[in-house]
Design a protein that fits this description.
The protein has 325 residues and is α+β, with helices and mostly antiparallel strands. It has 9 helices and 17 strands. It has helices at 6-17, 38-44, 75-90, 111-117, 162-168, 170-190, 231-238, 249-260, 309-318, and strands spanning 22-26, 33-37, 47-49, 68-71, 96-107, 122-126, 130-134, 137-142, 145-148, 151-156, 191-205, 212-223, 246-247, 270-274, 279-283, 287-291, 294-303.
Length: 325
């Protein structure tokens, strides 16, 4: 649960109780919360393309072949944080830690071109700062029902029987079970009658470099009376998102801060659109950030006691892609 920036969460409550539409962005730490009314979104220059809301124009045809080159850290550098995570898992301080890295990339596409031509369930461009193309819903609230869709477990779709291999992989399965359990507990803070509606279903993610399968589940509940209409209070209780943190939350967060050695910022934070009645929100992953005129792609995955160093290193690199095809 976030204690930081309580004032901003109260502002979100006021707006949602008054049924005023707004867009919000919350960074991983909860220290930075931005709220935009509908007219302020365009003034800021934000471009948003969600399933239920978009302020984008039709994109012009891309007149170049997309190019993306990444410069991942060495296996040895990756291993330093990985070993620290594993040490803490073996000490019992965490049983799932989401370990992420920051990779320098070069591309012939602008952030705006990436936004317009990538394909994803959720896309946002924050001008001259970051762009993301996320496949992962965080929570939806529709008519008093709150649902979350944790996505945990990916595999190269070109592998023979990839979907079945993913579903039956012991490490990926354990990771998925843990996140489902964690999110079920998180929802129980703000909702009653919480249940897993769909378990371990497979999504297909098509990208320019390679195609991936990802494993998700659906969990839902009925919002408790004291949280009805209070989007900010709900977010404050259930953030950070369990799928990009791990379990148990407080201790795992300390491990992440030590192991990663960089500020996540808005990466793995949450953004959402409240339309005056209902909410749709996503986890800000598949994330490219501009820092001193250099682009960085932030990516990672869940570490458990069964994780193998080389596999986790490869997964981190596999997730460096732009879904343009």
């Amino acid at each position: 649960m976030f204690s930081a920036n309580t004032q901003k969460f109260l502002e979100m409550d006021e707006l949602s109780l008054q049924k005023v539409p707004f867009f919000f962005i919350i960074d991983f730490s909860g220290n930075h919360v931005e709220i935009y009314l509908k007219n302020e979104i365009t003034e800021k220059g934000l471009l948003i393309d969600f399933q239920e809301f978009s302020n984008t124009n039709c994109a012009e045809d891309l007149d170049k072949v997309p190019f993306l080159k990444s410069y991942p850290e060495t296996l040895e550098d990756f291993q330093k944080g990985f070993d620290y995570v594993q040490k803490n898992i073996h000490l019992g301080n965490s049983y799932l830690t989401n370990y992420t890295r920051k990779t320098k990339i070069e591309t012939n596409l602008s952030l705006e071109e990436i936004f317009y031509h990538s394909r994803a369930k959720y896309k946002v461009l924050y001008p001259d700062f970051f762009v993301f193309f996320s496949p992962e819903t965080f929570v939806k609230i529709i008519d008093g029902k709150i649902s979350t869709y944790p996505m945990k477990g990916t595999i190269d779709a070109s592998i023979e029987n990839a979907a079945e291999v993913l579903k039956n992989d012991q490490k990926e399965k354990a990771e998925h079970y843990t996140v489902v359990d964690l999110l079920r507990n998180d929802l129980s803070i703000v909702a009653d009658d919480v249940m897993v509606d769909k378990f371990q279903y497979i999504d297909f993610l098509k990208t320019h470099q390679k195609n991936l399968f990802a494993m998700s589940s659906e969990i839902s509940g009925k919002i408790k009376p004291e949280f009805v209409g209070k989007i900010g209070s709900i977010m404050q209780q259930i953030l950070p998102a369990g799928s990009i943190l791990g379990a148990p939350k407080p201790k795992t967060r300390d491990i992440i801060l030590h192991a990663e050695g960089f500020e996540r910022g808005f990466y793995t934070g949450i953004c959402g659109w409240f339309d005056g009645e209902n909410l749709d929100s996503c986890v800000m992953i598949r994330f490219i950030e501009k820092e001193n005129n250099t682009l960085y792609f932030k990516s990672g995955g869940g570490i458990t006691h069964m994780s193998k160093l080389e596999d986790e290193y490869q997964e981190m690199k596999n997730k460096i892609y732009v879904p343009i095809h």
